[in-house]
């Protein structure tokens, strides 16, 4: 029953806060993955677009070359041969396009006009040119099957050059052979060829196009698929296999275009992002759960406190009622002059005195407590002898002790110097401790009070041979309102404020209160005072 408000709060927190937050976390987790996929697909598309543009660019250039050669053939200008025997226009074409190493026109299967740019400005030797023309004739006749197929397609309007690798002995070249169909009626189109050096072509055309589209965001490479040779790479030391996208270069299909994000890959970014998100979610959940636990702890503490306060009110009412009833009863009896003997009368007076002292003490405790709580309690510290304070307190208590048959043992060192204390507060502490000793000693009624010096401190020790305090309770008894809820406590009265006041008073004096106790053997409370201090203190 007692726990039910706590359970309600717990339940409310779980339903109203924990469930939504955990659901949100789960949602975020899955959403993050979804977002990652979306971003990845957008990036993928971007990479594809770049590769496509590079390919398209190469294709456009090739088409412009084809168009130029077609013009040369169409205008029939090749009839004009220069004195060295090669067509002037092919030379012009080759020189105008630096990435082209050479070009030829294969008029008939056995007649090829070739121009090759061996070295800028240096004309190829005639003999070598004839040799090359023959080699090309040979290569073309070797590839006749492919070339026939290409011609058929060209007639349908689709031109895709046939690639023939060719080694001149000096250079490794790729020959792009394509048909130029002059009249549909002619069965045999003229074949033409453009020779390019793959490496030069890649660095001059492919890489340049790529650089023009890139702001250092992407890394790019071109690799020969057959021999694995990397012809170009923006990041030299990167492994080509780490590239994310790969696409063949349309005009030289043995080459692969490769692309990825600079320095990292999409997968890594996505992994990093997911990890960061997860860590963030985890940390915020941890903070959140810690907050909830802290809240629950506070709530539970507050509830315990409120339970203790309720018990406190009940205890105090009871505490007030008993002495008041006694005082009233004895006072009435005395007033009616019903008491015959002086002894009896004195006894009544003393009871009234002692009960009103107890009442005063209880009320003092409550008032002090409330002043401390509202931070209004002030202490005046002045030099005073602790021995004197103890003796004064005992004078006040003597009757009480005698009445209850308590044996008192005093062991007070007499040569101790005065120390700065608030006499009233210390008296109140002593009264609380002696009262506790009396209340908690149902059988062996014995109290020892000692005063001695120890390690630069003056110590008051109050020992009883009462019920003792279990180890587990020895810290808690100094908390406000705390009372041990078992055994004798049901029979003893109290507010649960006494020891918390003692603790507070000792802190104000720069000292401390501690207890040594064994159940059924008794307890000793120690008040330790430092030997300096005087002045005014506010709590
Ligand atoms: P109370 O008004 O209940 O005495 P205190 O703060 O003075 O409140 O003490 C708190 C609890 O510590 C008491 O309820 C009692 O159970 C225990 N206690 C205090 N002094 C002694 C003692 N000398 N022997 C055994 N138990 C004690």
Order of helices and strands: HHEEHHEEEHEEEEHHEHEEHEEHEEE
Bound ligands? adenosine-5'-diphosphate
Percent helix: 40-55%
Q: Summarize the biggest pleated sheet.
A: 5 strands, antiparallel
- End-to-end gap: 38 Å
Number of helices: 10
Radius of gyration: 53 Å
Number of strands: 17
**Structure class:** alpha+beta
The global form is rod-shaped
In the predicted model, the low-confidence regions spanning at least 5 consecutive residues are: 533-538
Strand order of the largest sheet: 2-1-5-4-3
Content of β-strand = 15-25%
Mean pLDDT: 83
Q: What is the topology?
A:
Elements: H1 4-74, H2 88-96, E1 100-108, E2 111-116, H3 126-142, H4 144-155, E3 162-167, E4 172-180, E5 190-196, H5 198-213, E6 218-224, E7 230-233, E8 245-248, E9 255-261, H6 266-335, H7 342-373, E10 378-384, H8 386-403, E11 407-412, E12 419-421, H9 423-439, E13 446-454, E14 457-464, H10 498-508, E15 512-518, E16 522-530, E17 535-538
Helix pairs in contact: 1-5, 1-6, 6-7, 8-9, 9-10
Bound molecules: adenosine-5'-diphosphate.
Adenosine-5'-diphosphate (ADP) is lined by residues 432, 436-437, 440, 464, 466-469, 477, 482-484, 489, 494-500, 523.
How would you characterize the overall build of this protein?
By secondary structure, the chain is an alpha+beta fold. Among the domains are: 84-263, no CATH class; 378-538, Histidine kinase-like ATPase, C-terminal domain (Heat Shock Protein 90), CATH 3.30.565.10. The chain contains 10 helices and 17 strands. Strands 2-1-5-4-3 form a 5-stranded antiparallel sheet, sandwiched between helices. Strand 1 and strand 2 (111-116) form a beta hairpin. It starts with a helix and ends with a strand. Adenosine-5'-diphosphate binds at residues 432, 436-437, 440, 464, 466-469, 477, 482-484, 489, 494-500, 523. Residues 432, 436-437, 440, 464, 466-469, 477, 482-484, 489, 494-500, 523 line the site of adenosine-5'-diphosphate.
